[in-house]
Please model this.
Amino acid sequence: MSLPAKSTSPAVILTGDRPTGPLHLGHYVGSLRNRVTYQHDYKQYIMLADSQALTDNMDDTGKVHRNVVEVALDYLAVGIDPTKSTILIQSQIPELAELTFYYLNLVTVARLERNPTVKAEIVLRGFERDIPAGFLTYPASQAADITAFKAALVPVGEDQIPMIEQTNEIVRRFNRIANQDILVECKALVPEIGRLPGIDGKAKMSKSLGNTINLGASAAEITAAVKKVYTDPLHLRVEDPGHLEGNVAFIYLDAFDPDQAALAEMKAHYVRGGLGDSIVKKRLELVLQEMLAPIRARREELAKDRGYIMQVLKDGTAAAREVAARTADEVKAALGLSYF
Ligand code: TRP
Model:
């Protein structure tokens, strides 16, 4: 992934997560560890997309409420620094809803129905024809999130690229109507190692598939998960040659083992034959325990001070709201919606 050259004022980054569960290693690889580095060089907004989470969770609003704090804890525990990044809660910035309302007139129902991300998610959720209107139209709300902060860069997984394309369509249509470049087009930043498989070998680590290792996992949970990690089903005896493709133990070691030279030797030995899965898993367990122990400790420490977490969220949201409100004013003025 190559980042654009820096200009005098740092480019704005907007990223976010739907707070529907605690974050896991898949999030860590796909976004969290990048955010920790971005925050030094960019103006980074990180949004807890609680309103968006409600578009398919109206039957369990408590889950979304609880997970706002859980995800905030994950952010801080991995090293997102609230003095460098602005963490905000989507629902507490009414201007985001307001912008969504206007942007809905810049997309057609047919275009929303064709959005590949929305299409795939409708299948995944089994909505069939009973699609909540708010769910179908969430690309407009995502466009509001991105444009409110005039974000130039949006780090997302590959599956979210259609959201960026649709956002830019809205931006172009709006600027044409406004006859000036009020909104800013954005670029998706897709990480190279975007997707971590689940411990069961399925292509994606995801809470709904029950194949995750959470960032706050206890030592015992990590041990249990490593035992279940999918390896090579054809590697029955130690002396058999093993395969690396689709071998989750090695995929995780590729992603997390700090000693990549030793890992290369281990892989060669495995492929040659003579190296048992138990040795590989022992290494994986050590690597994961060492990586997650400080994150867990920090998470537990922070969780004791809920007042601090709420203050971080309140301050971040207030700062973000000022920016979003300025954009909303410009948008409304350009639409002739300013009177006094
Ligand atoms: N749709 C994103 C997800 O499901 C969350 C999100 C909401 C988001 N608004 C955003 C991501 C704006 C990037 C930019 O993960």
The chain has two domains: 12-196+305-334, 216-300.
